[in-house]
């Protein structure tokens, strides 16, 4: 691939974004859609600037609750994944339970969390946690459970204990799975926080969108949407970068 | 090295994994310390099961296994092992892969930090003898299949085990690389005289490398022939094109043919 192609490849996503914004702006203007139904791109940008202060405050609320829930999810997901993945028995015992739990729409937990913890940051953090720990558990457990039996034999006849096998082989081996799951988990965590904020909070982007929507200020609602997706994208890219740095050996084919 | 006391001793050993019958049956044999033995037989005859019993990864359902004068009750603690797939860890360099056993085997594991420089020296020496000098810092996936297998053999030997188990280690290699690695293994063995149990499909491989070849029957695996290979050592590859060697391989081949058609 020559330099020109590379440059084009890097610019392509930005061009796509610009194209989408242009289509949005042009079609709203041509069709003369009223702003309280579907605001134009320029009206949304206007709202972003006008309400920069409140948007910033609510974004910060959403960001930190998401990150708190995500951190909790990583800690619990890692621990649970490690335990389940390192024992065949526990793997078989817990897997159906986990799948069943994951099938429950997490928004159904919010009313329960509100009863327990009241309105505010705590339900948002916990919803983010509940929604994001599952992929981490599954990935870490799978990484550990799919250890090659030959490798295990090699180590066992050296006198390795179970914990040696896990630390020397199982854990490093499951790292690519772990980092891949972080990318999914962080975007899910945003979903959890915002869902909780729309029902049970007076802070955060979810709340902002809810209250702006009830006042028919659709430009502000769309501004909220854009801020959430921007935050989620930045976090995703951050973890994608981390994944590449930490587990380059697992992505050797893509160089 | 007294020939009278066997290093590995199987006394009427059978193993059944489940109710479907014995995987191997009524095996009695003894292996001297420093002996190179090979097991050949049709596929599914329990050659790999024999290895699992010998290393204590499986307990026999009948009979007893002794290694170095003690009954085998669980996995051995200081045994080298290599398989058809090299099974190197992709996140470790070749050198670090070879060092892995020293991080696990007693007494080296507790000395690993302190004596690391010395251990690295051992690993480099060993890698040099198998022709991997200059590849120490490469990752396994940057090596060819033959080179990975060389590294795998180094990993099996770095902690200077007295017993080396090889389960079709050259099975996935091309003919030329395979013969090259026969010679590598022969030289390592000539120099260190560890005890080797080699499981293979390749009769030429068995005859070229081993002191004693055991032929196993179809499942349930029994030993139907014990053949001492009295070709003089050190053996050169040229031996394999001479009449005594060819006759020997042919006899073994006929035995296996009889088993398969029986």
Let me know the largest β-sheet of chain A.
Answer: none
How many β-strand stretches of chain A? 0
Please, how many helices of chain A?
10
Measured by DSSP, the beta-strand proportion of chain A falls in under 5%
What is the C-level CATH assignment of the largest domain in chain B? Alpha Beta
User: Would you tell me which CATH topology of the largest domain in chain B applies?
Assistant: Rossmann fold
State the low-pLDDT regions of chain A, or none.
Answer: none
Mean pLDDT of chain A: 90
* Rg calculated over all Cα atoms of chain A: 22 Å
- Subunit organisation of the chains: heterodimer
CATH hierarchy, class of the largest domain in chain A: Mainly Alpha
Number of domains of chain B: 2
The CATH topology of the largest domain in chain A, please? Answer: MetI-like fold
Biggest chain pair contact, residues each?
A: A-B, 21 and 29 residues
Architecture of the largest domain in chain B in CATH?
A: 3-Layer(aba) Sandwich
Q: Helical proportion of chain B?
A: 25-40%
Uncertain spans of chain B: none
- Radius of gyration computed on alpha carbons of chain B: 18 Å
Count the E strands of chain B. 10
Protein name (chain B): ABC transporter ATP-binding protein
Domain ABC transporter (chain B): 8-243
Pfam families (chain B): ABC_tran
GO molecular function, one term (chain B): ATP binding
What features would you describe in this structure?
- Chain A: It is a multi-pass membrane protein.
- Chain A: Its main location: membrane.
- Chain A: This is ABC transporter permease.
- The complex is a heterodimer of chains A (255) and B (262).
- With 255 residues, chain A is an all-alpha fold.
- Chain A folds into 2 domains: 1-32; 37-250, MetI-like (MetI-like fold), CATH 1.10.3720.10.
- Chain A has 10 helices and no strands.
- Chain A has helices at 3-31, 41-50, 52-85, 88-103, 109-117, 121-145, 149-156, 162-200, 205-214, 218-246.
- The termini of chain A are close together.
- The mean pLDDT of chain A is 90.
- Chain B is an alpha/beta fold and 262 residues long.
- Chain B folds into 2 domains: 1-74 and 224-238 and 245-262, P-loop containing nucleotide triphosphate hydrolases (Rossmann fold), CATH 3.40.50; 77-191, P-loop containing nucleotide triphosphate hydrolases (Rossmann fold).
- Helix content of chain B is 34%, strand content 21%.
- In chain B, the strands form 2 sheets. Chain B has a 6-stranded mixed beta sheet with strand order 6-7-8-3-9-10, sandwiched between helices.
- In chain B, helix 6 links the parallel strand 7 (163-167) and strand 8 (195-199).
- The relative contact order of chain B is 0.18.
- The interface between A and B is medium-sized, with 21 and 29 residues.
């Amino acid at each position: 691939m020559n330099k020109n192609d590379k440059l084009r490849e890097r610019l392509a996503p930005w061009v796509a974004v610009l194209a989408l914004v242009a289509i949005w702006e042009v079609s709203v203007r041509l069709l003369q859609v009223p702003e309280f139904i579907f605001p134009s791109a320029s009206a949304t940008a206007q709202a972003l600037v006008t309400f920069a202060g409140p948007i910033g405050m609510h974004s910060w609320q959403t960001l930190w609750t998401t990150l708190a829930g995500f951190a909790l999810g990583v800690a619990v997901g890692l621990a649970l994944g490690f335990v389940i993945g390192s024992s065949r028995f526990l793997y078989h015992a817990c897997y159906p339970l986990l799948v069943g739990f994951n099938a429950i729409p997490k928004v159904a937990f919010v009313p329960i969390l509100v009863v327990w913890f009241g309105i505010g940051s705590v339900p948002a953090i916990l919803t983010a946690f509940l929604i994001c720990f599952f992929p981490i558990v599954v990935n870490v457990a799978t990484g550990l459970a799919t250890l090659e039996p030959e490798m295990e034999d090699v180590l066992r006849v050296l006198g390795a204990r179970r914990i040696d096998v896990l630390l020397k082989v199982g854990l490093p081996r499951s790292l690519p799975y772990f980092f891949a799951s972080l990318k999914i988990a962080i975007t899910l965590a945003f979903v959890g926080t915002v869902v909780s904020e729309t029902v049970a909070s007076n802070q955060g982007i979810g709340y902002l969108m809810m209250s702006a929507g009830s006042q028919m200020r659709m430009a502000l609602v769309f501004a909220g949407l854009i801020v959430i997706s921007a935050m989620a994208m930045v976090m995703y890219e951050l973890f994608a970068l981390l994944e590449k740095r930490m587990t380059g050996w697992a992505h050797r084919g893509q160089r | 090295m007294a020939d009278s006391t066997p290093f590995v001793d199987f006394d009427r050993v059978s193993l059944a994994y489940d109710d479907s019958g014995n995987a191997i049956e009524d095996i009695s044999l003894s292996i001297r310390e420093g002996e190179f033995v090979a097991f050949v037989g049709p596929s599914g005859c329990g050659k790999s099961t024999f290895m699992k019993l010998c290393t204590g990864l499986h307990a026999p359902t009948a009979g007893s296994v002794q290694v170095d004068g003690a009954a085998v009750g669980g996995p051995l603690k200081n045994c080298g092992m290599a398989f058809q797939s090299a099974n190197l860890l992709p996140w470790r360099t070749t050198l670090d892969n070879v060092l892995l056993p020293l991080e696990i085997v007693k007494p080296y594991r507790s000395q690993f930090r302190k004596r690391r420089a010395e251990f690295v020296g051992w690993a480099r020496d060993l890698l040099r003898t198998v022709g991997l000098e200059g590849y120490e810092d490469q990752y396994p996936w940057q090596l060819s299949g033959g080179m990975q297998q060389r590294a795998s053999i180094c990993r099996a030997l770095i902690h200077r085990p007295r017993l080396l188990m090889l389960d079709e280690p050259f099975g996935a290699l091309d003919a030329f690389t395979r013969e090259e690695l026969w010679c590598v293994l022969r030289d390592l063995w000539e120099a260190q005289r560890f005890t080797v149990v080699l499981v293979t499909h390749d009769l030429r491989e068995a005859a070229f490398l081993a002191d004693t070849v055991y032929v196993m029957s179809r499942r349930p695996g029994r030993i139907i022939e014990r053949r001492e290979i009295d070709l003089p050592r050190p053996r050169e590859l040229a031996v394999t094109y001479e009449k005594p060697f060819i006759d020997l391989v042919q006899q073994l081949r006929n035995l296996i043919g009889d088993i398969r058609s029986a």
